[in-house]
Amino acid sequence: MLKSFFHTGFVVRDIEESVRFYSEILGMRVAGRTERQGEFVEQVLAFPGAHIKGGFVDMGEGHQLELIQYLSPASGKGGVARNDLGAAHLAFFVEDIDRFYAETCERGLSYNNPPAAMFGEDGELARKACYAQDPDGNWLEFVELF
Fold first, then answer.
1. pLDDT in tens, the chain (146 residues)
2. CATH topology of domain 7-72
3. Do 7-72 and 89-145 fold alike per CATH?
4. What is the largest CA-CA distance in the chain?
5. Which end of the chain is more exposed for a tag (fewer CB within 10 A), N or C?
């Protein structure tokens, strides 16, 4: 029986660059670092000789984002479009999405479009949202509810 969410994991090319992106560009907290190899990680990942480095970032609310760099076996080229089967994204609530968008653009985050507005049946603004990618192409969504 499922109890709760634990974490979300993204495979990354360079653990240092990714931890820096999530902590410095997005302002998340670095919650921990790991390096694993040996029987346990080989069995869990089903890769003989598996060796990974990891970093956990969070916002202090329980759910963590695990960033995993495969040292062995090395990761492939990557590149998943938003509409490909198997594609995933991680969504964040933000305050003042227009300011967040402007500030993170200045820090180097590239978005596919500026925040889009969605209106409710009453004609009132219900939410704004936009998509971006981290340095490894993992999709991120930012949402402000009104």
1. 988 889 999 999 999 999 999 999 999 999 999 999 999 999 999 999 999 999 999 999 999 999 999 999 999 888 788 888 888 999 999 999 999 999 999 999 999 999 999 999 999 999 999 999 999 999 999 999 99
2. 2,3-Dihydroxybiphenyl 1,2-Dioxygenase; domain 1 (3.10.180)
3. yes
4. 58
5. N
Question: What distance in Å separates the CA atoms of residue 94 and residue 89, rounded to the nearest whole number?
Answer: 16
CATH fold group of domain 89-145: 2,3-Dihydroxybiphenyl 1,2-Dioxygenase; domain 1 (3.10.180)
- Strand 7-11 versus strand 64-72 pairing type: parallel
Burial 15-28 (b: 16+ CB within 10 A, else e): beebbebbeebbeb
pTM for the model stands at: 0.90
Question: Rounded to an integer, what distance in angstroms lies between the CA atom of residue 146 and that of residue 114?
Answer: 17
Q: Where are the domains of the chain?
A: 7-72, 89-145
Nearest to 128 by CA among 101, 105, 89: 101
Across 21-110, the runs of DSSP E, i.e. the strands, are 29-37, 51-58, 64-72, 89-93
